[in-house]
Amino acid sequence: MTTPFGPSYVRAIAPYVAGKPISEVAREFGLNEASIVKLASNENPLGMPESAQRAVAQAARELGRYPDSNAFELKAALSERYDVPAEWVTLGNGSNDILEIAAHALVEKGESIVYSQYSFAVYALAAQGLGARAIVVPAVRHGHDLEAMLSAITADTRLVFVANPNNPTGTFIEGPALEAFLDKVPRHVVVVLDEAYTEYLPAGKRYDSIAWVRRYPNLLVSRTFSKAFGLAGLRVGFGIAQPELTDLLNRLRQPFNVNTLAQAAAVAALQDTAFLEKSAALNAQGYRRLTEGLDKLGLEYVPSYGNFVLVRVGTDGEAGNRVNLSLLRQGVIVRPVGSYGLPQWLRVTVGLPEENEAFLAALEKALAA
Ligand code: PMP
């Protein structure tokens, strides 16, 4: 027998399962692409803002050259928007990149990373890819148990991931609770506060995590342009942290990890506050409609602060897959979450009004089958 390639901890990784693309479902189920509704990847149902489309068309003329490795304009725009020096910003190929870079920059093989059960899949992947020890803290009501996460930190813990709101459950930790947590985390441990959905929070739930970055040198706030800003396909995310941490991350960052089109689109999207407001309002309205529909069907769901909702579609271990298959046959793509240990649940992204109706109608049929 020959020796297999690569370390055993890499061979043990179960690859990330992304939302099924529309074209794939059309091929597999013999459906017309135009009739398919995709509510599987927490994308913005409004698509990319027109302001960003125009910026991309303009920037497309410069694609013979490398991107600006230091992304001067985008960092300047972020710096102004979030009131931090540009030296506090790390750019990523999506915020996924920020999460990976942080893990690689801070954790050695054998050291530990703490995160919650039912939190974003990439935390586990980042830990596994490094041969780090994952300390997975049991969730409470599908959300983070911050007290237990604090107690789980050991001398070899280098990183704690906290998603707020969390994906795939949509749970939310109130600002004061998070702040109290940050206050107690030992200073040798970096906290990555993953705020991919923060722009969807209602005014009453907002908190100022950037102010915390000024106070805590061990805090990295991670944000993305993929959700409310509508740029998922371009891949832009960013981290905000004090210079010591940011400097470390930038040593590992690929020099051209955010491409020219993405940089231009992100600058435009950041300034397009009307689009952001419209996206948040559409989401709030769609969430109300979806949950009304789920209530009518008598289904349990986890109250969500993101642009998606986790719903329990049955009580047996095959329920999620079974209902998912029926939805796919009807041309509706949602996200099964069996890989998260939630085989009775499906995660559905809030869509346009007609997409939400199509999902609810398909779900009713799937449950009746
Ligand atoms: N964090 C969370 C909590 C997410 O749900 C996602 C997207 N699924 C990401 C990070 C990564 O998104 P992106 O790389 O597109 O910024």
Report a brief summary of the structure:
The chain is an alpha/beta fold and 369 residues long.
CATH T-level topology of the largest domain: Aspartate Aminotransferase, domain 2
Q: What is the CATH C-level name of the largest domain?
A: Alpha Beta
Mean pLDDT: 97
What percent of residues adopt helix (DSSP H or I)?
40-55%
Proper CATH architecture of the largest domain: 3-Layer(aba) Sandwich
- List the ligand species: 4'-deoxy-4'-aminopyridoxal-5'-phosphate
Number of domains: 2
What distance separates the N and C termini?
A: 49 Å
The general outline is: globular
> So how many helices?
14
Classified in CATH, the superfamily of the largest domain is: Type I PLP-dependent aspartate aminotransferase-like (Major domain)
Number of strands: 13
Structural class, by secondary structure, is: alpha/beta
Beta-strand percent range: 5-15%
**Going across the major beta sheet, what is the strand order?**
2-8-7-6-5-3-4
Q: Uncertain segments of ≥5 residues (pLDDT<50)?
A: none
Structure description:
The chain is of the alpha/beta class and 369 residues long. The chain folds into two domains: 18-47 and 274-368, Aspartate Aminotransferase, domain 1, CATH 3.90.1150; 50-271, Aspartate Aminotransferase, domain 2 (3-Layer(aba) Sandwich). The protein contains 14 helices and 13 strands. The protein has helices at residues 8-11, 22-29, 50-59, 72-82, 95-106, 121-130, 146-152, 175-184, 209-215, 243-252, 260-271, 273-296, 319-329, 353-368, and strands at residues 37-38, 89-92, 112-116, 133-137, 157-163, 190-194, 219-224, 237-240, 301-302, 308-312, 332-333, 335-336, 345-349. The strands form three sheets. The chain has a seven-stranded mixed beta sheet with strand order 2-8-7-6-5-3-4, sandwiched between helices. A hairpin with an 8-residue loop joins β12 and β13 (345-349). The protein is globular and about 55 Å long. The model has no long low-confidence stretch (mean pLDDT 97). The chain binds 4'-deoxy-4'-aminopyridoxal-5'-phosphate.
